[in-house]
Structure formats: structure tokens, C-alpha cells
Design a protein that fits this description.
Elements lengths: L1 H17 L5 E4 L2 E4 L9 H4 L7 H4 L3 H6 L2 E18 L1 H7 L6 E15 L4 E10 L16 E7 L7 E10 L3 E2 L13 E2 L2 E10 L3 E8 L15 E10 L2 E10 L2 E4 L6 E2 L7 E2 L11 E8 L2 E10 L6 E4 L4 E4 L13 E9 L6 E10 L5 E10 L14 E10 L5 E11 L2 E17 L2 E10 L17 E13 L2 E12 L13 E15 L2 E14 L7 E18 L2 E17 L8 E12 L6 E13 L4 E18 L2 E13 L14 E12 L5 E15 L4 E18 L2 E15 L4 E17 L2 E16 L5 E15 L4 E12 L7 E12 L3 E12 L10 E13 L1
Antiparallel strand pairs: 1-2, 3-4, 3-48, 4-5, 5-6, 6-7, 7-10, 8-9, 10-11, 11-12, 12-13, 13-22, 14-21, 15-21, 16-20, 17-18, 17-21, 19-20, 22-23, 23-24, 24-25, 25-26, 26-27, 27-28, 28-29, 29-30, 30-31, 31-32, 32-33, 33-34, 34-35, 35-36, 36-37, 37-38, 38-39, 39-40, 40-41, 41-42, 42-43, 43-44, ...
Amino acid sequence: MFKNHKKTAQLCMLFIVLGLVPTIAFCGDSVISGESPGMGNQSKLLDPVSNVSRDYLLQDSMYASRQNLLFLGLAEMTIHTLSVKGNETAFDINSPDLTKDLSTNFRASLFADGNIGKGLFVHGVTVLDSKIDDEYRVYDPSIFRFKMSVESTEPLWDTWRFTGNSIYDPNYLWEYSNLDTRLLTQPQEKARLELFAKLESDDHGYIEGGSIKPSFKGAQFSLYNRSIFGAYADLKNNSLGIEAVGGKLDGKRFREGTSVGFPADGTSGPYYLSNAPVTRASEEVKVEIRDRFDLTTLISSRRLIRDIDYTVDYERGRILLYQPVPSVTAANDPIYIVITYDYQRTSNDELLGVRLNNKINNSNSTSISILHQFQDNNVATVGLEEPKNLFAGDALLDFKRFGSGYIEIAGTESDNYSDEDMALRAGWTVNPFEKLRINADMQRIEDNFQTFGNANLQPTTNQQRLNTEGIYNLTEKQQLNGSFRNIKNIIPNGLNNTYAGTKKEDIYTLSYKNRERESLNFGAGFELRNTKNSDNPLAENKRQKRFIGDLSGKQEQFIFINNFEYGTHYELVTLRNLVAGGLGNNNTNQFSATVASEPRQGTRIEFTQRIRLVKDNDTDLWSDREDATFFNMRTKHSKNFRTFTTYEYKKYTVPGNDLSFWQSDPNKKEQAGSIAFEYLPVEKIKTLGKFTRHDLNQVWTDSTLSKVDDFMLGQVTYFFTHHFWLDVETEFHQIKREANLNSRNKTWDFGVRLHWNRDRLNEFTAGLIRRWQLKEDEPVQELKSTNYLLLLNGSVALNKNFFALASFKRFLLRNIYEDEETFIKLEAGYENTKRFRISIGYERIENEIDDIFPDNYYRGHGIFTRIVGKF
């Protein structure tokens, strides 16, 4: 058994190093399978190297004991003779590995898997290649220049353990399985270098380096989750600790939308980012609920997880959520999609910093931090500004009976601002009695204060905030809460939180919650909010009172409804303008009711209805009315069929004295909905689909504004056999605006891919992509474009170890497309499975004639010989 497994494992590894492994490769009695899109393991198509896991290599204990380290390798030389016509300079730029007349390229590869010495395991492949941009033309993108992981299975010395992994790939990779970006072969991932190494010890801390996102522990104002290519250390020795960071800043931090993010609209996107490409894994996507009376006040936040809650296209900058997010809560507080990320740019900004920590005891510590940025002044970019120098100090304090707290202070210097800007935050928590807890915290961030990476501070910059709160637990399920908040902007007309004057808000709250019975929970609350312009009280001086009542519960059985839930929310808000003769005095009544049920496992239905009425006390008329309906349903009809449906409808009217049940003639309507499904009608077919729409209609006395945003995607995969399948994908996005000047933008992608595979040298893939685009902005005449792209790739094993390969890419019709080159490559040869392979081929590369830039046309074609030696 050992001999058979060893031989088949070597052959399989060798094929992978050669970059010739098709979607499914047989190794002995096991199958290493890269599944098709939609079958739950798409990453294998992108990286066939990862399909060969060390679990397979070590699954046979006899094999593992005899073969501790496996090496496989090859050396390859390719000789081209090429004729170039047209723009030779453009050809050289786009094909730097090929030159006119005669050129030679070489490659050497080594695959390693097993133990190196005691307790050190290595797994990966190293490739030395003289070519730069050629591999992307091949269907199988398995060749990385360097991909390796090393880890220690036991401490190398003392208590230190090592873990490392790396990827270095200067090639463009065709991405074949990402439905939510571009179909079939789009986009291409740019060259990337990802390294990570870590030394760690339970007693002394750790050191890591490579592509990392370090943060100074517990700090908000200094270093926070910043993408760098460099090193970070967190070391400790008894009571002393040090954190150090150094490296090149990777990209520029940016926060999308307004200072508080994208307003959710009841759909799942897509959300297009302002800057791209995006640094891989640098994004942070959150769903935040904010106070509708003060958007800088955060009520709750939930971070989303990539590939579970959303997909991201790093190259073009697009995020698509899997599930829609409602625009508001049942209490009418707005919901925002907050997206922060680092986008790539050409710069040489570098960061160096250190943080010293003195641990006084187990509960008390002090720290100081210094960070310096070596700035590239030749690069001008937008985004979160970062300082040249940052100084910070922080402390954690715990006095047991008297409570515990924290304090952090920081100052920054920047070439853009002459003054040093400060930030301060502090907090304290104390439990004077068993049932009473008191919290107090404050934060002050000056207008031009800058940090390294923490975009979460942006909504509260140029603000001073003070909060005190007392929580008294009457019983385990009854709670009394009281709080006071003071919010004040620091300077008038600042860059952040702009206000003409000094705005001061004092907010007092008192609430009671009762959760004694699961079937009947209730609560009540009161809020007083005073808002004043301290510099000019005649400009703004308001008082708002809010009375709140909540009622909710759930029952396993209610009449004939299983797992029944209900909830109601009522608010009375009174607003008074304290400026003599000032207008805007009104009373608002708001009521919402929610019912939900889970009639069976995998199915949930929820319905919410809300009404909001505003009465203008100055005119004694109802000045505004909102009727809102929210519905969502998740069903699992069977193990092969699941659906998800959401809908929300909001209507705004000016009722005057008419308070009829359903108002007509709204001055504003907004609706959004989504339908998604996953269905396996038979064993060999899988279908996916999603459709979302957001429709906004606003009516004024002299004009109308309408905006409709439609998005649709779908996928059907049919498996004729285990080796033969068909994939059809489509994506449609339209934004239509109607106003004084109308506009339309449409993009429709449609792709078909057919794949057949028997073994590594008998496979065929054909893909056809159609992209249709329309753009119209009145009074400019509409522009249309239609593009067809054909891709063919295949190989066949002939008798007596002879083989043939072919790759083909051509635009059948193109007006505008991102990739200009087309190519054809034919190759045939002989392979000795143990020692060598030799082949001869023909290659043609052409940049087709472009009506806009005809001088860029070129064509290069010629023959090549490839010689490969193996061990």
C-alpha cells in the first residue's frame, strides 16, 4: 500500500506544481475535487494547490511514518521565436516576458510537504519564474510564485512556537467562480504579496510580521486595526510590557457615505465603494442603529462577517449583503451600513511606533505610546487623515470597593495643521450596593485630531460628550435606569459636526423594565432633551419631552399559531421652541405593532405596522403623517428549497384635519423589497436567485423626483455527470431617475460556461460572456455598448504519452471592455511521466483595433519549444 500511495501522491503533487491540475484530479483511491460554483467550496477552483491537503498525504499511518518529508520539483525552459507588427512599445508593455525575434523563459519549482527537524511541519510550493504576466492566460491558475506554510507542532525552544504562511504572486488570476463580482472570468486579481509569521509564547507574548492589522491593546486613539506590511510585537516580562510596530502603511483608510455611513434602504445593496482596489481583508462592515434625534449617538452596532453576511469585490470595490437590512427599527430609529476599509495607492508612507506598559498589579496598569509616520508628500489622496506624530498615554485602574475605570489621552501633530489636537476619554464604574451600578464616562475629540486606523471616531469628532448612568436591579427581571448626557461641539463651523455656534444638548432619561413573565414584558420611559446655541440663544433654544411605552411577549401556542411573538411601541414627543415668537412647536404621536410566528422549523414570518402623526401647534393642523409597513418571511419548504422575502412601504402625507384610516395623495412614497431563493429541483441541478428593488417617489408643487434601483442575479448549474457540468450566470443592475432631467444606467451581464474533465490531460472548458450597458443623462443622447467575450481552453491525451493543449480568448464584439488583449495558444508534445516533458507550440497575441486609440494596435505571433525536467 505504501508504494502505491507514494507513487500516486508524487504524480499528483507534480501535476500541481506544473500548474496542469484540472478541476478534478485523481490521486490513488482518493479524489481531490474542486467543486463547481454554487456547490459550497468555490475557493478550490481559484486555488487548486489548496486541494492537496496534508491530511490526505498523512492519512495512511504507514506512509506517514516512512515518509517524513516529500520533495517534488521541476525545471522548465521555453524558447520563443516571435514576430511583432504594429505598436511594438505597447506590445512590450503588455507582454514584458516576450520580445521580438528570440526570447527565453525559465521556471524552477519545488513542492515540499512534511517534517523539517523536530516539531516543524512545512507545506507549500516555491516557483522561480522569469515570466511576469503570462500565466493569467491559462485556465488553471494554480501556480503561485511562493506559497508556503510552516508551523511548529511543539515548542522550538523554551516555550516559543512558530507559525507562518505566505503567498507571493505577481500574476493576474482569472477568477472563475465569483458570481457577485463579474461573471466567469472577471475580475482579474492583481498581483499580491501576503506574508505572515508569528512567534508566540504563553510566558513572554508574541511577535508577528507580514501583512498584518495590529492594534495597541485597549487603545482607541493611537493604533487601531491598521493594515501594514511590517512587524508587530507584544512582549512582556513580569510587570513590564512593550508593544512595537513598524512597516509600510498598506493603503489609505476610508469611511464610506456620510460621517455615519450609508442609510440602509431595505435591500441588500450592492454598495459601491468610492475608492478601489481595496486592500484585501481590510474592510469592516457593520450595521448600526442610531438615535434619530442625534445621529452621532450610537444605540447598537453589529459587525458583519465576510462570506457569511456579505461578499466583497476588492478589485472594483463593491459589497453585496446576503440579507437585506431594513431602513429603520420599529421605534423609527435609522439604520446605517457602515463600511470602512483601506484602499490601495502608490505611496511610500511608513509607520514606526512603540507602547510601553507598566503593570502595577493584576488590575492596574499604565502605558505611554509614541507613533511617527514617514510621509510620502508626493502622493495626494482622500480618506482618513493620519498624523505625522502621535503621543498617547492610558491607564487602567481598579480600586475594588471604589470601582474600576480607564483613562486615555492623545495628541497629534500634522503638517496640514499648525496646532496640536487632543483627544481624551475616561470612564468609571462602581457598585456601591449589590443591586446598584453607576457608570460615568466622558470623551472629547478635537476637530483636527487624527488617529491611525480608527474611523469609528469620525461621527463624534469635534464633540465633547459626558454620560452618567445608574442601573438599579429591583429583582432579577426588573430594572430601573436613569441617565444624564451632555453633548457639545467644541468649535463652531468645524470640519466635523459643523454648526454655526456652540451647540449644547442636555439629555435626561428615566426608564423601567419588567421581564417577570415571558408572555408579558413591559417597560416605560421618559426623556427630556434641551438643545441650545450657547453663542446665540436666539438662533436655537428648544425643549423636547418624550414619553415611551413598550409591551411585548411570546407564547408557544396562541390560538392556532405556533411560537407566537408580539410587540408594541408607543411614543409621545412634544417639541417647544423657547425662542420668543419661534415656530416649530409640535406634538408627535407614534405607535407600532409587531407580530411574528415560527410555525415550523426553518420558517419565520414577521409583520410590523407603524403610524406617526405630527401636529403643528402653531397652526393647529396635522402637518405630517407617516404610514409604514414592514414584512419579512423566511421559509424552508424542504431540504432542497429555501426562500427569503422582505418588503417595506412608507408613505408620507400632509393630512391637515383629515385623519382617515388610509391617507391618499402622499407627497412622498418609499418602498423596498427583495426575493431570494435556493432550489435543487433534482439531484443534478442547483439554482440560485435574488431580486431587490428600492423605489423612492417625492412630489413637490412644481416638480417630481423618482428613483428606482433594481438589482438581480441568478445562477443555474447542471451536472450531466461528475465530470461534465454546465453553468449559467446572470446579473442585472439598473438605476433610473426621473426629475427635471432624467437619467438611466443599466448593466446586464450574462455568461455561460461548459466544463468537461476526465483527468489532468483530458479536459475542456468553454465560456461566453455578454455584457450590455446603457447610459443616458438628459439632454445627452443615450450611449449603448454590447460586448461578447469567448474563452476556450482544453487539453487531450494522445496515445503513447503524447498530449495536446489549447487556449483561446477572443472578443466577438466589443465597444468598451476592460481587457484589450486576445490570444490563441496551441501546444503539443511528449511526456515521460518519470523524467521529462518536451513540447512545441504556436502563440498569437493581439490587441484588437480600437476606434478611439487605433495607434495601440499590435500583433505578435510565433512558435515556441518547451522542455521540462522533473524529479
